[in-house]
Write a structure and sequence with these properties.
Layout: E1 4-6, H1 8-13, E2 15-16, E3 19-20, H2 31-41, E4 51-57, E5 63-71, H3 81-90, E6 95-101, H4 111-127, E7 130-137, E8 142-144
Parallel strand pairs: 6-7
Antiparallel strand pairs: 1-5, 2-3, 4-5, 4-6, 7-8
Helix pairs in contact: 3-4
Length: 151
Amino acid sequence: MSFTSINIYTLKQIRTGRRRFDLEGLQITSPFVCYQVLQYLLDLKSEPVERFGIIALNTKHKIVGVHIIGNGTIDKIYIEPRQVYMAALMNNAKAIIAFHCHPSGDATPSRDDLILTQRLKKAGKIMCIELLDHLITGEGDYVSLREEGLV
C-alpha cells in the first residue's frame, strides 16, 4: 500500500513528555478538535512538501484510524479518491476528514484543493462514506472547507 496507517493501538501509545493523548474513543466534534488532533499527532507545519491524509471515523464520529495517503511537492499534491477511500474501507469508516498541509504557511485553499474536495465528496457519496471536512493547515492555523461552506 502507498499510504501509512496509524492504528488505534499506536495512537494509544503516543506520549509527549508526561502528557498522554488517548485517541481511542475520541469524538471529533468540530474542525478545531480535528486540528488539535492533527497538531498533536503530526508536525504538519514543519513539512517541506505537501502531505495529505485522512482521519477515519465511525458512525459516532469517533476516530478509528489515521492515514497519510501521500506526499507531494512544495506547492502541489496529486491524490486519487481511490487511494483515500481504500484507506477508509480498511477501517470500516462511515465518514472521513481529509487534511493536508501547505508548506508555504498559508492555509488558503487553492483551486486544485477545491477540485479535489469535490471529487472526494462525489466519490464518498457513491461509497456511502461521508466527507465531513477537508482541513488545510498552514503555519499555526488552518482552514476548514466545511466552515467555509465548500464541503
